[in-house]
Design a protein that fits this description.
Blueprint: H1 31-38, E1 44-48, H2 54-67, E2 76-80, H3 83-95, E3 102-105, H4 106-121, E4 128-129, H5 134-143, H6 150-165, H7 173-180, H8 188-205, E5 207-208, H9 210-223, H10 225-234, E6 237-240, H11 248-258, E7 265-270, H12 285-288, H13 290-293, E8 298-302, E9 304-305, H14 310-321, H15 326-329, E10 335-336, E11 345-349, H16 352-368, E12 376-380, H17 386-395, E13 400-402, H18 412-426, H19 439-448, H20 462-486, H21 493-506, E14 515-519, E15 528-533, H22 549-563, E16 566-575, H23 615-625, H24 641-646, H25 658-675, H26 679-682, H27 685-694, H28 699-703, H29 710-724, H30 742-757
Parallel strand pairs: 1-7, 1-8, 2-3, 2-6, 4-5, 6-7, 9-10, 11-16, 12-14, 12-15, 13-14, 15-16
Helix pairs in contact: 1-2, 3-21, 4-9, 5-8, 9-10, 9-11, 14-22, 16-17, 18-21, 19-20, 25-27
GO molecular function: helicase activity
InterPro entries: DExx_box_DNA_helicase_dom_sf, DNA_helicase_UvrD-like_C, DNA_helicase_UvrD/REP, HRDC-like_sf, HRDC_dom, HRDC_dom_sf, P-loop_NTPase, UvrD-like_ATP-bd
Protein name: DNA 3'-5' helicase
Length: 762
């Protein structure tokens, strides 16, 4: 008797008669969504713009296939990129009567297969999964003879992950890096050594990481035909959501699942204009070239935007109309299906604290009109920008939640509440609930035993967050009872507890009542009635280290994602200075040129640089052109690190500005003291000497000095230029925090959600 993959019914068993009312699944779909839902045989490519109902279309496609008898639910695998998205998909499929369909992340699906097939294909137990790489990367760096800072470890880890998903082994890493145009955080040869040492350490200790899960699964399927055949007989119908974000490694695994020839029923869904994770190895090429690989494919475009007002959609379309590159050539022109709303609001502030305080007051006013706090979001480019908004909201007593924090059903108070509610549901005559008039009152009575009260506590912080979690359970009870009553079904405590269990399994959390604070990367896939896009200034968006044309275009797409999160109210703001009283040197992002009132068309203004060259482009060209470094005095080719940094021989005369050097040293000492770190963490003596000898007059010139990388340019560049000009920089405040590098927030978001999903369901 054939043994089945764990957790699935026999894929060859008779499913039975097609459920009555399969056509009811199609009710309410627009013509394009219906075309997706009825295209049951692949290959199918769905190009879906933001807010066009892509999840609705593909879940109804799967449900229609199941309920019409064309698909057996156990033979359907839907994959996406985050546990949240997979959980939402499972919840929708369950509501549509398509139980048994597997909706998972790439990593979760691959891990289940690897756990099942490893003993048969390789033998023995599967190596232990390494959940956190950083410590092992630190050890690998030490074995490679490198001393690295904590923030550098994150960059090294990201580079190793990028190399693995692009399928570059350590020896090939430098060449792969050069081919991609990606800028490494340090010498590529050093990173390759750390990468090799990291791989060796994993092997010695019997460990695999999350990228190994994909690599090993793909390798087993490639090398063991009988295993590949088993998987392909199990799964006949595939759906890939967010296909613009697949990496070369994920595409390799997908081709093994489907057989690679397109013969399987494959449906891919994506939008090249929402490609914002290229730093993790994601590429829209597979989506854009899908029809070339599969000429017979059915292609459906979804452009009816049901999320945003015409005013928001107009701005979103305007952003993309200025875009360049391959992804821009395939942009979708959205058409709003909603009634008109207010125009987007543009606000300029003198400094960041004023921007945060004013934004908090605007949110307070908005909440006063009846908008729920859970329907408001403040979105920013880097996580380091959140602190000032946390403080501003707390000062006004407005509850907030940080996106990417602990998952709802894993919070201690929610788990405890679940145990209490289950106990009450099992009790025949529980005195707590017997006198309650409705389900919500029963839930409130049970939660009251742990201090829950109908009115929220004063202030913010952990106490308020706990109350918000429990209040979300009460609101869910109200919504659950209303839905069951409307359907003519009973809504008792036992049914509600079962609903909670189902939601927890699907990670379908109820909304917590609080303003959302999130990075633009973390906001992908979410939506709110009101969105405040803050910090929209040059150097932040696009981020200062976006240098190539493609990197700048990805920053534009990031803003596009932010704009399209708003349903009705959209406010875009920026500040002219970091601190109160500071020099008003910042400019609003170039992406709003020609779109915000009073601005000129794109390209009409020139920023920094000379001869119309933007600092980022000038710096990139200088870095690419860098070759052997010669002494500026005697023109001897330099080989020693300190000499290269100074661009002169140690014995050649110095042109250093002694007074500037002393000012730089005093400033460095103050910054180091504020950070609680050694002075060399800010800049080494050699770097200060080089600055005092070159005396840069622009960020582009400063960036050419060895030791001034992207992060230090972003953090210290303006201060250094002021010192070089004989001026004093703004005082350093207690709340200053280092901006995080571009990969950090999006990469952390993906990892946090995927890792939680990577334990297979029992």
């Amino acid at each position: 008797m054939q043994e089945d993959l764990p957790g699935f019914d026999d894929p060859h068993a008779q499913y039975g008669h097609a459920p009555v009312g399969a056509d009811a699944v199609l009710a309410g779909l627009d013509p394009e969504q219906r075309a997706v839902a009825t295209a049951l045989h692949g290959p199918v490519c769905v190009l879906a713009g933001a807010g066009t109902g892509k999840t609705r279309a593909i879940t109804h496609r799967i449900a229609y296939g199941v309920r019409s008898g064309v698909y057996h639910p156990a033979q359907v695998l839907a994959v996406t990129f985050t546990a949240r998205a997979a959980g939402e998909m499972r919840g929708r499929l369950r509501q549509l009567g398509a139980d048994g369909v597997q909706a998972r992340t790439f990593h979760s699906a691959a891990l289940r297969q690897l756990q099942y097939f490893w003993p048969r294909a390789v033998g023995g137990d599967l190596p232990r999964l390494l959940e956190r790489k950083v410590q092992l990367v630190a050890e690998a760096a030490g074995r490679s003879g490198l001393r690295v800072q904590r923030t550098e470890l994150r960059d090294l880890t990201a580079e190793i992950e990028w190399a693995k998903v692009t399928q570059a082994v350590p020896d090939d890493y430098p060449a792969a890096l050069a081919k991609s145009g990606r800028e490494a955080p340090r010498d590529p040869a050093e990173i390759a050594r750390v990468y090799a040492a990291y791989q060796d350490l994993k092997g010695q200790r019997g460990l695999i990481d999350f990228e190994d899960v994909l690599l090993l699964t793909a390798a087993i399927l490639e090398e063991r035909p009988e295993v590949a055949e088993r998987v392909r007989s199990q799964y006949r119908h595939f759906t890939v959501d967010e296909y613009q974000d697949v990496s070369p490694l994920q595409q390799r695994l997908l081709e093994q699942w489907t057989g690679g020839d397109g013969g399987a029923s494959l449906c891919v869904v994506g939008d090249a204009s929402q490609t914002i994770y290229s730093f993790t190895g994601a590429t829209p090429d597979h989506l854009l070239n899908f029809r070339h690989r599969h000429p017979e494919a059915t292609v459906v475009k979804l452009v009816r935007d049901y999320r945003s007002t015409p005013q928001v959609v107009h701005l979103a379309n305007g952003l993309l109309s200025q875009a360049r590159g391959q992804a821009a050539q395939h942009r979708l022109e959205l058409v709003s299906q909603r009634e008109a709303g207010p125009e987007p609001v543009y606000r300029e502030y003198p400094d960041e604290p004023t921007e945060a305080e004013s934004t908090a007051r605007l949110i307070r006013d908005l909440l006063g009109t009846g908008v729920r706090a859970s329907e408001v979001a403040v979105l920013f480019r880097t996580n380091s920008q959140s602190e000032v908004y946390e403080q501003a909201l707390a000062d006004l007593g407005i509850a907030y939640q940080l996106k990417g924090a602990e998952r709802f059903f894993e919070r201690p108070e929610v788990r405890e509440a679940g145990v209490l509610l289950k106990g009450a549901a099992r009790a025949a005559d529980d005195p707590l609930t017997s006198g309650a008039p409705d389900l919500a009152a029963q839930v409130r009575a049970v939660l009251a035993t742990r201090g829950f009260a109908p009115a929220p506590p004063a202030g913010s912080g952990a106490v308020r967050e706990r109350w918000e979690s429990l209040n979300a359970l009460v609101r869910l009870a109200e919504e659950f009872e209303a839905a069951r009553t409307a359907a003519g079904e009973r809504a008792d405590l036992a049914a509600y507890v079962a609903e909670l269990d189902a939601r927890a399994a699907a990670q379908h959390a109820p909304a917590v009542e609080g303003v959302t604070l999130a990075s633009l990367h973390a906001a992908k896939g979410l939506e709110w009635d009101a969105v405040f896009l803050v910090g929209l200034s040059e150097g932040t968006l696009p981020i200062i280290y976006a240098k190539t044309d493609e990197q700048v275009e990805e920053e534009r797409r990031l803003l596009y994602v932010g704009v399209t999160r708003a349903r009705r109210f959209l406010t875009l703001s920026w500040s002219l200075s970091r601190s109160p009283g500071g020099r008003a040197s910042r400019k609003p992002t170039r992406f709003l040129d020609g779109l915000r009132p009073g601005s000129s068309s794109p390209g009409a203004r020139t920023r920094g640089g000379r001869g119309g060259v933007e600092p980022g482009a000038e710096r990139s060209a200088a870095r690419r052109a860098r070759g052997p470094v010669k002494c500026r005095v005697c023109e001897r080719t330099l080989t020693e690190g300190r000499e290269i940094k100074l661009r002169r021989c140690e014995g050649c005369p110095s042109t250093m500005d002694e007074a500037l050097y002393e000012r730089l040293r005093e400033w460095r000492s103050a910054r180091a003291k504020e950070q609680g770190a050694p002075a060399y963490v800010v800049f080494t003596d050699a770097t200060l000497t080089a600055i005092a000898e070159d005396v840069p007059g622009s960020l582009a010139e400063l960036s050419r000095i060895s030791g001034v990388g992207a992060m230090k340019l972003d953090k210290y560049g303006s201060d250094v230029l002021l010192l070089c000009a004989g001026e004093s920089p703004e005082p350093v405040g207690e709340t200053d925090r280092e901006p995080e590098p571009a990969p950090s927030e999006g990469e952390a978001e993906i990892r946090a959600e995927n890792e939680a999903e990577n334990s297979p369901e029992k």
